[in-house]
Design brief:
This protein has a single domain, classed as Adenylosuccinate Synthetase, Chain A, domain 1 (3-Layer(aba) Sandwich). Helix 3 packs across helix 4. It has 10 helices and 16 strands. Helix content is 28%, strand content 21%. It has a 10-stranded mixed sheet with strand order 9-7-5-2-10-1-11-14-15-16, with helices on both faces. It has a two-stranded antiparallel sheet with strand order 3-4. It starts with 6 loop residues before the first strand and ends with a strand. By secondary structure, the protein is α/β, with parallel strands linked by helices. Strand 3 and strand 4 form a beta hairpin. The structure holds guanosine-5'-triphosphate, inosinic acid and magnesium ion.
Length: 334
């Protein structure tokens, strides 16, 4: 099994927090990727544990761990300037990160409005919904209007497409998950943008014919932050007992949890047309898997779970997460 690369879209299959950040970081290093574009906004936190440091990235693409990778913020993304500048500093990526001139800006008034009105949905309160509403009303401030961003501006679709034409390798880093999509998710308990693979391409400015692979990421169980339906939800005590009780990267809220849901997963496959799957947190379901790097070393039950996923979803599982570190991956493409 080998990724055809050059252009791969990484997308979440449930309600976000499937571990896309860690998977993107792994791919960037392993496949020596030339560029990575992040979509979405600061409501999405991508956790990357690399060389003993835990990063909760809200703007900088998770591929920053690979030092030769050019980093881009997509035109469809929404930028919080303070968060962007702080993360650029923390990750030391100045000189290899660019923001599309059309990315729109989250201002203080958007955060205030979100915090005052977002309770009904259980938003992250980061101002993303109100900022997108202003973009739709065609009154938004864009990255090109912000003095502090002048030195980072670029025509991101043009740069990505030129790279692809030269056979460069590009990752489009999706944020959140299929069922948080404004269009395909559990409306109204959704985020303010479409989150599926084709929407990620659209946000980045890559046409459908230039996509070689769609990597759909599922966690070994389902989590959801904020309000909205969650089939098979277990209570907090049970989640704690199973080791499934997670804390959200951005808000620190507890994530609700449920077992792996094949119906949702099938629908996610239909909507995203993956060529490959990644299953993260197998070590949480089966602790003996922690840190394992080859499929053969997995306990029988864990292997059966992966095979069941492949049989029911009819898509190969290419990557399996066995721990929070970037290197904790079973790579079945190898
Ligand atoms: P969103 O765009 O917000 O949806 O985020 P995300 O998909 O990047 O996921 P996030 O980093 O918010 O949450 C995933 C959590 O799982 C983080 O705490 C990761 O460190 C952790 N994680 C990822 N893969 C694995 C894995 O294979 N095993 C374990 N134990 N932890 C993992
Ligand atoms: P908003 O995107 O902040 O408006 O939040 C809308 C809904 O999406 C809430 O239920 C949030 O908890 C959820 N949400 C937004 N971003 C993320 C994410 O990155 N991971 C998981 N849930 C998210
Ligand atoms: Mg997250």
């Amino acid at each position: 099994m080998v990724f055809s690369m050059p252009c791969i879209v990484v997308v979440g299959g449930f309600f976000g927090d499937e571990g896309k950040g860690k998977i993107v970081a792994y791919l960037a290093l392993r496949d020596e990727v030339d560029a990575c574009a992040r979509t979405g906004s600061v409501n999405a936190g991508h956790t990357v544990v690399w060389r003993g440091v835990k990063y909760g990235l809200r703007m900088v693409p998770s591929a920053f761990v690979y030092e030769n990778c050019r980093l881009y913020i997509a035109p469809g993304a929404n930028v919080n300037v303070d968060v962007f500048l702080k993360e650029v500093d923390e990750t030391n990526v100045k000189g290899r990160i660019w923001v599309d001139k059309y990315s729109s800006i989250i201002e203080a008034k958007h955060v205030e409005l979100d915090q005052a009105t977002g309770g009904r949905i259980g938003t992250t309160g980061q101002g993303v919904g109100p900022a997108i509403a202003d973009r739709v009303r065609r009154v938004a401030k864009l990255a090109e209007d912000v003095e502090e961003l002048k030195e980072y501006l670029a025509d991101v679709p043009l740069e990505l497409n030129k790279l692809l034409d030269r056979k460069g390798k590009v990752i489009l880093e999706g944020t959140q998950g299929t069922f948080l999509s404004l269009i395909h998710g559990t409306y109204p308990y959704v985020t303010s943008r479409d989150t599926i693979a084709s929407a990620i391409c659209s946000e980045a400015g890559i046409g459908p014919k230039k996509i070689d692979d769609v990597l759909l990421v599922f966690k070994a169980y389902v989590t959801r932050v904020g309000k909205g339906p969650l089939e098979g939800e277990i209570d907090r005590e049970e989640a704690l007992r199973r080791g499934w009780l997670e804390k959200a990267t951005v808000t620190g809220r507890e994530r609700r949890a449920a077992p792996f849901n094949f119906n949702l997963a099938s629908k996610a496959v239909m909507l995203n047309t993956p060529t490959q799957l990644a299953i993260t947190k197998l070590d949480v379901l089966y602790p003996e898997c922690a840190g394992v790097r080859s499929f053969g070393e997995l306990p029988l039950e864990a292997k059966q779970f992966i095979r069941e996923i492949e049989e029911k979803l009819k898509v190969p599982v290419a990557l399996i997460g066995t721990g929070p570190n970037v290197e904790d991956v079973i790579d079945r493409r190898l």
